[in-house]
């Protein structure tokens, strides 16, 4: 790949163009997503692409031909002038560049900067200094997301841990004073809160694997109708009325290879949301993917007859911390559901159901058996 540079003989406002190599292998610096600044052997800027101008708020015409320290007056977080400290042209001849770090432009504008020293021979003089610039907005968003995750986890853990600690301390201190029924009630509460903590930790592990692309899918034959029936029966056993649920199973379902545990996680989350946040009948339909879908697979639709999700919120349903109501929860469940479905190569959508409530539809492709991967 060759990136063209401007030369001192060209007009300063002409900007970088393809040079030296023509054809598909030549790339205009303005096509690059990151800022690119190139200085020649004298330290004057010969390339300053559009991304660099946008990130630094320095006009290209002002940067081309100027000394690098004037075009990019960078300082470290302690206020020390960066090019004076690093001295790329006069420093050690064995250095090859600078790793990416957070630096400041005038006015306190933060920018991520890395540099490469180009020499004709390994210890020769620097013939070209190539600087890469990136804005810090994406990193800031990631940091805010992590901070929100930590705050949410701390808040969700505090209540069950307080309960576990309180009941166990009470039982240990006053065991003989309680009847067997009282002891059972307190131990059942401790058990329920411990389960809540375990589920939260499992969610955190899932988020970590999804974000890093390490969510493993162990494919086995999955009987989707049986899985749906199992979840519905669990809700009925938990006190929900049987007529709260309507299950529709279409015929000629394709053979499905998926991760049974993760399919249970998806079904459990969608049904729990429909029961907790929706109203009326919860309808679960299992059918072959329709002709409009790109790949053969199984489609599962979960809908309710509640107020539904506002149109303006549908784009945020599968993001972290989105909550459809004030009825508790971490707001992480649907984010994890989307990650699991996509890890299977499937898709999930949200819309408004026939009864006016929320409708979630996910499609899992047929898949490949684990032993054949």
Set down the secondary structure blueprint:
Blueprint: E1 2-3, E2 26-27, E3 35-39, E4 45-48, H1 50-56, H2 60-63, H3 68-71, H4 82-86, E5 97-105, E6 109-119, E7 126-134, H5 137-174, H6 180-212, E8 220-221, H7 224-237, E9 245-249, E10 257-258, H8 260-277, E11 282-288, E12 297-303, H9 333-343, E13 347-352, E14 358-365
Parallel strand pairs: 1-2, 9-11
Antiparallel strand pairs: 3-4, 3-7, 5-6, 6-7, 8-10, 11-12, 12-14, 13-14
Helix pairs in contact: 5-6, 6-9, 7-8, 8-9
Strand content: 15-25%
Unreliable runs: 4-24
Mean pLDDT: 85
Main-sheet strand order equals 4-3-7-6-5
* End-to-end C-alpha gap: 35 Å
Overall spatial form: elongated
Number of helices: 9
Indicate the structural class: alpha+beta
Amount of helix:
25-40%
Over the alpha carbons, how many angstroms does the gyration radius reach? 30 Å
How many beta-strand runs? 14
Query: Main β-sheet: number of strands, strand sense, barrel status?
Result: 5 strands, antiparallel
Q: Could you spell the SSE succession in H and E letters?
A: EEEEHHHHEEEHHEHEEHEEHEE
What structural keywords apply?
9 helices; single chain; alpha+beta; 373 residues
How would you characterize this protein structure?
Helix 6 packs across helix 9, helix 7 (224-237) crosses helix 8 and helix 8 runs antiparallel to helix 9. The protein has 373 residues and is an alpha+beta fold. The strands form 4 sheets. It has a 5-stranded antiparallel sheet with strand order 4-3-7-6-5. Mean pLDDT is 85; it is low at 4-24. The chain contains 9 helices and 14 strands. It has helices at 50-56, 60-63, 68-71, 82-86, 137-174, 180-212, 224-237, 260-277, 333-343, and strands spanning 2-3, 26-27, 35-39, 45-48, 97-105, 109-119, 126-134, 220-221, 245-249, 257-258, 282-288, 297-303, 347-352, 358-365. The radius of gyration is 30 Å and the shape is elongated.
